[in-house]
Design brief:
By secondary structure, the protein is of the alpha+beta class.
Length: 789
């Protein structure tokens, strides 16, 4: 019996070739999109979830009053972890971590091998909380003292050119702004791909405390704190205990502490007024919904094309019923046909995914692979069964419901309910397509807006590279030589980076007539050298820039406009503030964006510090980049010949702030295009259905002299109405969705009317193309042959 069904299905595929190939392309494209998004979503939700005790593993977060709102940060006092472990019984273990900031990157040397490495400083109980797989050494004995380090397997391979020989006990030298010395390798760990912890080398936190003893003060907030809670712990009560602990240790503290699951920090990393308010989870939910909608559109196409061809199969159904076939047998045949087509589409989709994965990985910045593990096999099986059942159920019920007598007479039933369902499905398709078009236009314009908006400083033709190695001691000589180059406009340095938000912040400021509200003001700041303001092209609004002409400016300070407004200082030039001693305000710079455009400009200042490491910035003449960089590299090799010259353009660093938005824009455009394409296939199916139903009417009209324009109106009026209804539904829906997304940016492009008009025009154009293809078919109809039937 199954063989007979398969033979009939094969004959029907062969008989309706165009319908078969359209369904195959539509379903396989929908399934390919679903699988690509599934791989991406699965990778996103797995980030930081590999830790053994992830259900009890939390990070301590800090809420601090900031004006009329709350600022949420992961920076906590250095002694907090130790106090939690001894004073809060609900906590099984706690550890302190100084995260791997780019400013801490240093040089590691083993023999003749040298490489850059990003360090992280960890407490004694680090490995009780963080699951870390060691390929060499014992992780619980990995950091017995300040002179012990653990390195990653990648770094070990780069330094020692082996992945098998033991490197335990080998000596390495590490050097950055704070650390200089020799260390013994006590362990080698494997880097975890699904992790946000991107460090190369682990040091003991006790070493960090010996270098920066001020970090062990309750008034400072540099490190991060992590806790492993006991089973059954009341998290709300734990939050209260943490805040009470902070109050006991520092009575003046106006912050509150709370914990958040570490496995959720990647997806839920955005906060509003001290409360988690989403983050990357928004994009996970968004593209998951897009995947389901695209697959749903593909299934709707199958339904429409199947019912459109019903007039060609109703006699088949009638004969089968006359010969004794029950409705159940017909439903089974049509469902097997649907499942078989879905299975064929799945194999084609897998081929498409394999071919598209390299490009998809390039867009998303991931390393996804199509690995057929048990989970993926189960997902493929479920999605095939679901798609086949969902796509084939309505056509099966529709085709099997024909009355045998009416079917053999060639009369196709046409009820209001069937028309409503069929037209409603097409309306649904175009609602989704129009909303996606609007979203793509808005996202594209917002990304373009934030990438081209003037940040308040010059970012073009400026390169940045690390001030490491001999450049720390010979920095003045190096910069002096740089400025002599004919193609170099200026050069300076800063400790930290602008793009993405500065890493240095403080609230320990005092100024005259300071109120309690003003005490809550926090400032971002950068330690810089002379000429940094000129190199970046920042505009001085009042006063002057740092200059050696006025003697040492080591106690001078320059604020931005927002900082002066926040402090409420009148006539600020010459006034003094307290920040590690008295400092004189010598200048005010116009506001500039040192954070992404998702944040408003905040209080900020510059101060001189020529001793720290950081990044050297070089402004190059436009059009002379290649020549100048070659000369800079040559000079760099004279000072740091044992290190590779790694640089980055400042505008590239700026653009990297908006990687998520750029990727969203690109992916949205691709998926919107696919949705539109598949929707047009659905419209083609409905047009095909109408042509078949109205074949005799069209033949009669042509016989009576009706021209092509009249036939076009006959076919298009109904479709234009359907698409018009879809557009009317999609406009308010698209407006609400894009408005809410734009509200996540402090600076945003306005919602222009042409986004919606453009989406509507595109929808009507695609409708015209689908109808036009049917008009060509109608123009070839021979009225005599149609009327003879």
């Amino acid at each position: 019996m199954l063989g007979l069904h398969l033979l009939l299905i094969f004959r029907n595929f062969k008989r309706f070739k165009i319908s078969f190939f359209i369904n195959l392309i539509g379903l396989s494209t929908g399934l390919a999109c679903f699988l690509l998004i599934y791989l991406w979503v699965t990778d996103e939700v797995r980030v930081n979830t590999y830790h053994k005790n992830r259900d009890r593993f939390y990070q301590v977060m800090r809420n601090e009053p900031y004006g009329h709102t709350m600022r949420t940060e992961a920076f906590t006092p250095g002694p907090l972890a130790g106090a939690i472990a001894t004073e809060i019984p609900d906590v099984e273990a706690a550890t302190v971590v100084v995260p791997p900031l780019p400013a801490y990157r240093g040089i590691i040397t083993a023999g003749n091998s040298t490489a850059f490495a990003l360090p992280q400083f960890v407490g004694d109980d680090f490995f009780k909380l963080f699951t870390c797989h060691f390929v060499q050494g014992n992780k619980f004995l990995a950091l017995p003292g300040k002179k012990s380090v653990c390195i990653s397997d990648e770094l070990s391979a780069n330094l020692f050119h082996t992945t098998t020989a033991s490197v335990i006990g080998r000596i390495v030298k590490f050097e950055n702004d704070d650390l200089k010395g020799s260390y013994i390798i006590s362990g080698v760990f494997r880097k975890q791909p699904s992790s946000t912890e991107d460090y190369d080398i682990l040091f003991s936190y006790n070493l960090y405390k010996s270098i920066r003893p001020e970090i062990d003060d309750w008034s400072n907030g540099g490190p991060s704190t992590f806790v492993l809670v006991k089973k059954g712990t009341n998290i709300v009560q734990l939050d209260r205990h943490l805040t009470a602990l902070l109050k006991r240790k520092r009575s003046s503290a106006d912050e509150t502490l709370f914990v958040q699951k570490y496995s959720e920090r990647y997806l839920y990393g955005t906060y509003e007024n001290g409360v988690p308010a989403g983050g990357r989870i928004f994009y996970v939910k968004l593209f998951s919904l897009v995947a389901l909608l695209i697959l749903g559109i593909a299934c709707i196409n199958f339904m429409n094309l199947s019912t459109a061809k019903a007039s060609g199969r109703m006699k088949e159904a009638g004969i089968k019923k006359v010969m004794g076939a029950g409705r159940g047998a017909l439903v089974l045949q049509y469902m097997i046909e649907s499942l078989l087509l879905t299975t064929l589409s799945l194999f084609l989709a897998l081929l498409m995914v394999e071919l598209m994965l390299p490009q998809f990985n390039q867009i998303t910045g991931k390393g996804l692979i199509l690995h057929f593990d048990l989970q993926l096999i189960v997902v493929l099986l479920c999605i095939t069964l679901f798609t086949g059942f969902f796509a084939g159920l309505y056509p099966a019920l529709y085709l099997s419901a024909f009355n045998p007598a009416e079917s053999l007479k060639g009369r196709l039933p046409d009820t209001a309910l069937e028309l409503l369902i069929r037209n409603g499905l097409v309306v649904f398709q175009f609602v989704i397509s129009v909303v996606l078009i609007i979203s793509v236009l808005v996202i594209y314009k917002q990304v373009q807006f934030i990438q081209t908006k003037d940040p308040g400083y010059e970012k073009d033709n400026i390169i940045s590279f690390s001030r490491t190695g001999k450049l720390e001691g010979d920095y003045a000589a190096f910069v002096s030589e740089l400025k002599k180059m004919p193609d170099v406009v200026n050069a300076s340095y800063m400790y930290g980076r602008l793009a993405g938000g500065v890493s240095s912040r403080t609230g320990g400021f005092l100024w005259e007539r300071q109120s309690n509200a003003e005490r809550q003001t926090r400032f971002g700041y950068l330690d810089v050298d002379y000429d940094l303001i000129e190199t970046l092209g920042l505009k001085i609004k009042e006063g002057r820039s740092f200059s050696r002409k006025f003697g040492a400016d080591s106690t001078a300070i320059i604020f931005n406009e927002t900082a002066i407004k926040a402090m409420g200082i009148k006539d600020p030039i010459g006034k003094r503030v307290m920040f590690y001693g008295k400092r004189q305000i010598i200048g005010i710079v116009k506001d500039f964006h040192f954070e992404s455009l998702g944040q408003p400009v905040k209080p900020f200042f510059f101060k001189i510090d020529e001793e720290k490491g950081g990044n050297i910035l070089v402004k190059i003449k436009a059009g002379k980049e290649h020549k100048a960089i070659a000369e800079i590299e040559k000079l760099y090799k004279e000072f740091n010949g044992y290190l590779p010259f790694e640089y980055k353009f400042l505008d590239q660093d700026y653009q990297e702030q908006y990687v998520s938005e750029s990727r969203t824009a690109m992916l949205s455009s691709y998926f919107a295009g696919i949705a539109i394409l598949i929707s047009c296939l659905g419209l083609f199916g409905l047009a095909s259905f109408m042509v078949e139903r109205k074949a005799k009417e069209i033949a009669i009209r042509k016989t009576l002299g009706c021209d092509q324009l009249g036939i076009l109106y006959l076919l298009s009026a109904h479709f234009v109405k359907i698409v018009g209804i879809a557009i009317l539904i999609a406009f308010p829906l698209g407006y609400v969705l894009t408005r809410d997304w734009l509200d996540s940016f402090a600076y945003k492009t306005p919602l222009e009317w042409w986004y919606f008009a453009g989406a509507g025009i595109i929808a009507f154009l695609m409708t015209g193309i689908a109808i036009g293809s049917q008009l060509v078919k109608v123009s070839r109809i021979n009225p005599a042959l149609i009327l003879k039937d």
